[in-house]
């Protein structure tokens, strides 16, 4: 029997929405890369095709926001605190590496900031969970 | 914030999961509440009070509030 606990329902809906968003992401990313590789695109159209995969990512964030609204107050707090920690850790890493670039380290793609944020979010979540003993 | 949720839950012979379902929260929320690591919002405190049939001040220790 399916649980009717609102937090379980929120998690289930979030997983379904995330799966749909990831499917949409692949469905947009693959043709976008194919179109760019094929060449021939210029100007604003080229930029629009290159940035198109961001649209499903926006839906990922909307799914997260919906989960935020549906889940319970404690999970909401843990989510917010872990996101806050992730922001601080990422800012610190980005600033540190920025200074190290002055000392000769190679310039990195903005993608590293995204990756650093995701890893920091996981670390933030572990710290917050440990703090609350859950 | 210290509280008597664990004791009251034992008196009713409820598991943490049962209390979580009755309050409409996750089990981890009950874990954090019982450990005194998380002070609930006023609406959740009143829900807990109603569930155990005790006034809020008999469940939560105001002196331990941080």
Could you report the average pLDDT of chain B, rounded to the nearest whole number? 94
Number of strands of chain A: 0
Q: Count helical runs of chain B.
A: 5
Number of spatially distinct domains of chain A = 2
Q: Can you put this structure into words, describing what you see?
A:
The complex is a heterodimer of chains A (134) and B (66). Helix content of chain A is 83%, strand content 0%. Chain A has 2 domains: 71 residues; 62 residues. The longest helix of chain A has 33 residues. Chain A is built from 5 helices and no strands. Chain A is an all-alpha fold. In chain A, helix 1 runs antiparallel to helix 3 and helix 4 crosses helix 5. The model of chain A has no long low-confidence stretch (mean pLDDT 95). The two termini of chain A are 26 Å apart. Chain B is mainly alpha-helical and 66 residues long. Chain B has a single domain, classed as lambda repressor-like DNA-binding domains (434 Repressor (Amino-terminal Domain)). The radius of gyration of chain B is 11 Å and the shape is globular. The mean pLDDT of chain B is 94. The interface between A and B is medium-sized, with 16 and 16 residues.
Please render the helix and strand layout as text.
The complex is a heterodimer of chains A (134) and B (66).
Chain A: H1 6-38, H2 43-51, H3 54-70, H4 73-102, H5 111-132
Helix pairs in contact in A: 1-3, 4-5
Chain B: H1 5-11, H2 16-23, H3 27-34, H4 42-52, H5 56-59
Helix pairs in contact in B: 2-3
């Amino acid at each position: 029997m399916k649980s009717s606990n609102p937090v379980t329902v929120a998690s289930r809906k979030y997983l379904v929405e995330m799966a749909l968003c990831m499917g949409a992401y692949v469905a947009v990313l693959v043709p976008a890369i194919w179109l760019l590789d094929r060449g021939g695109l210029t100007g604003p159209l080229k930029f629009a095709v290159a940035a198109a995969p961001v649209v499903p990512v926006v839906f990922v964030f909307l799914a997260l926001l919906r989960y935020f609204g549906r889940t319970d107050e404690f999970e909401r707090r843990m989510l917010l605190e872990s996101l806050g920690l992730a922001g601080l850790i990422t800012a610190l890493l980005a600033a540190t590496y920025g200074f190290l670039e002055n000392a000769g380290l190679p310039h990195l793609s903005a993608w590293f900031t995204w990756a650093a944020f995701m890893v920091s979010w996981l670390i933030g979540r572990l710290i917050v969970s440990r703090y609350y003993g859950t | 914030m210290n509280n008597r949720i664990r004791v009251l839950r034992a008196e009713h012979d409820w598991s943490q999961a049962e209390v979580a379902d009755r309050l409409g929260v996750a089990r981890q929320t009950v874990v954090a509440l019982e450990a005194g690591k998380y002070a609930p919002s006023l609406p959740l405190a009143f829900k807990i009070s109603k569930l155990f049939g005790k006034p809020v001040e008999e469940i939560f220790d105001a002196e331990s509030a941080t």
